[in-house]
Amino acid sequence: MSDQTGHTEQTGQSGQTDHFDLAIIGTGSGNSLVTPDFEGKRVAVIEGGTFGGTCLNVGCIPTKMFVYAAEVAASARDAARFGVDATVHGVRWADVRNRIFQRIDPIAEGGKRYRIEGPGTTAFLGHARFTGDRRLTVELADGGERTLTADQVVIAAGAHPVVPDVVRESGVPFHTSDTIMRIDDLPEHLVIVGGGYIGVEMAHVFASFGVRVSVVARGPLLVRHLDEEIAARFTALAREQWDVRTGTTVTALERTGEGVRLHLEDETGSSVLEGDLLLVATGREPNTADLGVEAGGIRLHDDGRVAVDEVGRTSAPGVWALGDVSSPHQLKHVANAEARAIAHNLVHPDDLHPLPTEPVPAGIFSHPQIATVGLTEEECVERGLAHVSFVQSYGDTAYGWAMEDTTSVCKLIADPATGLLLGAHLMGPHATTLIQPLIQAMSFGQTVRDVARGQYWIHPALAEVVENALLGLAV
Ligand SMILES: Cc1cc2nc3c(=O)[nH]c(=O)nc-3n(C[C@H](O)[C@H](O)[C@H](O)COP(=O)(O)OP(=O)(O)OC[C@H]3O[C@@H](n4cnc5c(N)ncnc54)[C@H](O)[C@@H]3O)c2cc1C
Hints:
With 475 residues, this protein is α/β, with parallel strands linked by helices.
């Protein structure tokens, strides 16, 4: 039982019930709730999967480490445009992959060992379910069960990839983002079902490594939840790099000797697409199906997310939730910010902090990169908001000339009456970095004029794209 118990005096034998001050389900963002405020208190940390959660093991961190390697390869291939002759002789997939996981895996393992052996927490390795009010039963990974109760419980259980029935029921082997990054060898031809951010990031990575990539998306555009102008420009550029099939449904799949065959349907009729590896990237749903929410008295939204109030409380007294399991934004910076608020609220019942409500930014690390915050132009129209917009091309700035850029843009939307930004949407190199002053402006209520004219913008840095876009808004 030593794996489960950092402090044997705090835990009973199987069949007994242990009581804790705090129990945390999930060690992604949940791990950060173990703050010095809980020193001397009894804290249970429960993890049913890989310690450290999605971002560290199968999400943000490894994907961006792959993206960086992909960009090294892509830049070398593009070098001739600048008079530099460089040849990519090949990509050593095993070395690319091992560099990444040899760094990440020890962090996850070290975090687990610290929670098991270190001070202040009792780690339970297994799947937790509510079996009553603030009462959990943990099905231990190495067999057996433990039951525990706690004064406060935080659900930080995250989300998992959705696999459409048509894929699951076909019996065809497939990968999700949970598994694709650890494959043994690069495929010749990767078929990706799903045109959201995970699909297009993976398309960029594998295409840059020399893999032929097909992307099948149901919607008319890739990344279709974005501002339509950006999504349309992105989709057009994606078609130059990958085999992109939008407005397309997968109706059946079958295994072939070499890989997989997909039967597709679009407005022109049916077609067949063959590849040797299939990645399903059709979204993620919260981990609430097997959490015993009814027994715990925890209300869910229709989409399966745990419902929380403005300070992170669920419908069950003493039970909180944060991150992908409850948030409409499945993003690590959102989960982190919610964890900070809840860490405070757990110990300050008379001074509850609201979960952050600032405009939520998001980045897509594909080729090109995209960054977005605030409203799309379509949302402004739907809401009947008076607005002006301006699109600044990277290519019309000094650094854009240096980069020979002809496709990248910064689109800003503002309220002409107040001069405040309503939305910012960038597509091009360093978009996820360039957007930061715009996120700041929106979070702190700075006007377009103040941000544009109230500070120096380094010349001739790429950030002049943002400066010029602000000036172009003329509000
Ligand atoms: C491929 C990919 C790329 C991404 N890239 C980005 C990015 O670039 N930027 C960004 O902001 N976000 C990104 N994300 C999203 C980001 O990873 C998540 O928003 C974030 O990790 C959510 O954190 P969390 O703490 O809510 O959940 P998680 O980190 O998923 O943690 C939940 C933990 O709870 C455990 N668990 C679940 N149910 C139980 C149970 N019943 N009992 C015990 N344990 C349980 C799980 O095993 C898991 O370890 C990416 C996600 C993916 C999949």
